[in-house]
Every structure is written in structure tokens, then in C-alpha cells.
Design brief:
Order of helices and strands: HEHHEHEHEHEHEHEHEEHHEEE
Protein name: Tungsten ABC transporter substrate-binding protein
Shape: globular
Number of helices: 11
Structural class: alpha/beta
Keywords: Signal
CATH class of the largest domain: Alpha Beta
InterPro entries: ABC-Tungstate_binding, PBP_domain
Radius of gyration: 23 Å
Number of domains: 2
Largest sheet: 10 strands, mixed
Organism: Parazoarcus communis
CATH topology of the largest domain: D-Maltodextrin-Binding Protein, domain 2
CATH superfamily of the largest domain: Periplasmic binding protein-like II
CATH architecture of the largest domain: 3-Layer(aba) Sandwich
Helix content: 40-55%
Length: 274
């Protein structure tokens, strides 16, 4: 009986020790929160990029993937330490308002107009504005993210350039969703949709969707990073966030971005030195 009691006590001590070590390990591990556009996560980039940063720095990054507009709002509330987004005008305003310390360019890719291979609205070509005019005139089915994301903001600019911002045709629908779900809706309904190329290349449920419009200089898609200003929100982990920014714009971070490919095709192009 004494042996059993001693074994029980020894086991209990061991369990307590393991629990304490676990708590200590969790508490001592450096981490930070990044609010980011959905395209950086749904394209698979972060699964490639962030482990390399953690290995170099010891800092774990917890990602909150949202549309760029929502990510900026998260930053304004101080609910993130760093932002990784793609709406330069909104980013510069964010910094001017004092919410971000400084905006750094990181990388770029482009937007593409996706649609059914048969292209019933006849939009195929290089000119995104001409394509949207045709789409509106044909009342073609179009899925808009409608979520204040960087992609949604770009889409609205193109509609405005096409003089169709107030009349996009009866086939225009907003889903209020991320890029992946918007592509799924387009695939299931044979609709057109504007997407960033990175998420499209990583998208598996393509049905008969194809890239129909690409190569227009207006489709350029720039990404930037910003540390949340600790003067606005003293609790943010500004030092860790700055470590990430310094790394991602460094030759090491830029090389990791360039190395991310799907089927041999590069998804993002580093340009921190622009």
C-alpha cells in the first residue's frame, strides 16, 4: 500500500512539474498578432514565410486574416501589433492619422479578372475597364467580395473608371466574403470575379473558370507592412512587430517571398527597395 501511495505522489509531482513547464514555456514564448489581408494567407504565402521568420527570430506570429479594410480597423483598435495589407491609399491615410508608425512596401503581384471559359460577356483581353463596361452592358453575373478589402477597393476603382460604379448590371452580387469563398461562388455559378493572382493560383475548385483579363498596368497590386503606433496603443508589441518588418524587407525576407512558387510559378515579387 505504501508503494502505491509513493507512486501516486511521485506521479502527481511529475504531472505538476510538466504543467508548470508547459505554462512557463507558453508564457515565455515570444509572439505577436498580425492582421492581414486574406490573400497572403489563402495564397499559402504565410505557411511558407512565417516559419522562416520564427526560425530566424524566435517570435511566433498569430495571423488574423481579414479584408484590408477590416485589418486596418483592427489596427485602429489596437487589436494587432503589425499589419500586412494591400491598399496603399488607405495605408498612407492610416499612418497619417497616427495609427501606424511607418508604411513599408514589401512585394507586389497583380489582379486578374476570372470568368467562365466560354466568356458569355465577351470580356477577354487586356483592358480591365473595357471588360467591365462589357460586363455591365451584358448584365453578366459578377461576384464582388463587398468586404472593404484591398481587392474590393481595387474593383470599385475599376468600375468607377468604367463609368459603371452606379450601374454594374443586374448580375452584380456582393458576397461580403473573403477571396476563397468569392472564387467558390463564381465557380459554382459560372460568374466573373476579380481576384489577386496569388489566391487564384492556389485555388483548387476552379470548375471551368479561366483568367480572362490580365496584363493591364491598372491591375498592379502592391502590399505594405506597418507597425501599430505604441503612442496610440501602449500595449502593442512594437519591438517584436518591428523585428518582423525589418526581417521581411531585408534580403533574407525578400528572398523567402521570391522563393514561394506554385507549379513553378512565382506568386509574389519582392520590391522593398523601390
Amino acid at each position: 500500500m505504501n508503494v502505491s501511495v509513493e507512486n501516486f505522489r511521485a506521479t502527481r509531482k511529475a504531472c505538476v512539474l510538466v504543467a508548470l513547464l508547459s505554462v512557463f514555456s507558453t508564457a515565455s514564448a515570444e509572439s505577436m498578432v498580425m492582421a492581414s489581408t486574406t490573400s497572403t494567407e489563402q495564397s499559402g504565402l504565410f505557411s511558407h514565410l512565417l516559419p522562416a521568420f520564427t526560425k530566424a527570430s524566435g517570435i511566433e506570429v498569430k495571423v488574423v486574416a481579414q479584408g484590408t479594410g477590416q485589418a486596418l480597423d483592427t489596427g485602429r483598435r489596437g487589436d494587432a501589433d503589425v499589419l500586412f495589407v494591400h491598399n496603399q491609399i488607405a495605408e498612407e491615410k492610416f499612418v497619417a492619422e497616427g495609427y501606424g508608425v511607418k508604411r513599408y512596401p514589401v512585394m507586389y503581384n497583380d489582379f486578374v479578372l476570372i470568368g467562365p471559359e466560354a466568356d458569355p460577356a465577351g470580356v477577354r483581353g487586356k483592358d480591365i475597364v473595357a471588360a467591365l463596361k462589357k460586363l455591365a452592358a451584358a448584365n453578366g453575373s459578377f461576384v464582388s467580395r463587398g468586404d472593404k478589402s484591398g481587392t474590393h477597393a481595387a474593383e470599385l476603382r475599376y468600375w468607377k473608371d468604367a463609368d459603371s460604379d452606379s450601374n454594374k448590371g443586374t448580375g452584380y452580387k456582393e458576397c461580403g466574403c473573403g477571396m476563397g469563398p468569392a472564387l467558390n461562388m463564381a465557380a459554382s455559378s459560372g460568374a466573373y470575379v476579380l481576384a489577386d493572382r496569388g489566391t487564384w493560383l492556389n485555388f483548387k475548385n476552379r470548375a471551368d473558370l479561366k483568367v480572362l483579363v490580365e496584363g493591364d498596368t491598372r491591375l498592379f497590386n502592391q502590399y505594405g507592412v506597418m507597425v501599430i503606433n505604441p503612442a496610440k496603443h501602449p500595449h502593442v508589441k512594437a519591438a517584436e512587430a518591428q523585428q518582423f518588418v525589418d526581417w521581411v524587407v531585408s534580403p533574407a525576407g525578400q528572398a523567402e517571398i521570391a522563393a514561394y512558387k506554385i507549379g513553378g510559378e512565382q506568386l509574389f515579387f519582392p520590391n522593398a527597395d523601390q
